[in-house]
Amino acid sequence: MARKVVKAVETDLVKAADNAAERMQAVKASIGKVIYGLDEPVELCLAAILSGGHALLVGAPGLAKTRLVETIAVATGLDTKRIQFTPDLMPADILGSEVLEEGAKGKRSFRFIPGPVFARLLMADEINRASPRTQAALLQAMQEHHVTVAGERHDLPEPFHVLATQNPIEQEGTYPLPEAQLDRFLLRVDIPYPERDAERDILLATTGASDAKAEAVLNPAEVLELQGLVRRLPVGEKVLEAILDLLRMARPDVSDDQDVRDGVSWGPGPRAGQALMLACRARALIQGRLAPSTEDVAALAEPVLKHRMALSFAARAEGLTLESLIARLAAQAA
Length: 334
Description:
This is MoxR family ATPase. The chain is an alpha/beta fold. The protein has helices at about 1-30, 40-50, 65-75, 90-95, 130-145, 180, 195-205, 220-230, 235-250, 260-265, 270-285, 295-305, 315, 320-334, and strands at about 55-60, 80-85, 95-100, 110-115, 120-125, 145-150, 150-155, 160-165, 185-190, 265, 310. It contains 14 helices and eleven strands. Strand 3 (about 95-100) and strand 4 form a beta hairpin.
């Protein structure tokens, strides 16, 4: 009897995973009508959402970071709001504030006016241009999914995700994100310059009389259902050991790798392992697989670890890069 129950559960999981894979292919197809040549960044952003986390998009100006976030919002059916971060942005501009109102009988009371953070998909544009005080206000929302204003708790809608953009070139007037906030981002997604063929498609598609539009495929309830499915996917012992090995090798105090011991200032914490576990499951589901493999660990090592590690000045002076170091560690672990 117990065996039949287990078999039924496994069958239901397979059916749910197959259906989810089809839905995610439709989401990618909808995004592909607008976004060209960014298949991997799109997949990483979707993996972050299915994992219930946030993503930091890093790239030069004009690489469609903003357009990508807007298109993902349309395809996933998540209502979105955008905040343009500037040095004079205040916490109340993000969270909201209380205003004093006078009723018909002259009685005065405070009413909370929600800020733009009350959205299911928040686009934080050029997040590193805001002051540390404002960045800290967003930190609670990202981690706790609620905000506190005047001592009162206000819950954010579910699901809640932040897709933030950051320009790595223009550093004047910026405030580097603190390690604590960087760690809240499940993945760092680097947006590259397009290949020649993709750029050709971009020029033809965006300079004509009409623009292609993405279509809504999912809704918030389906996104929550998919997030629950991701956590139900099995993870093999080999994948688990690969994740643990990678984390240990990336920490300078316990690593056997000489470059890590001498050149890494600080390494990834347990939250990195949690992010890698969830992202591997989400990537497998998006690609139509029932369980993640060590290839997923290798593919996601850089997006998960790059913003959770730092090289010393001496290591950078000697030409060591985080990209090459993480790639080598991932190859050893997988």
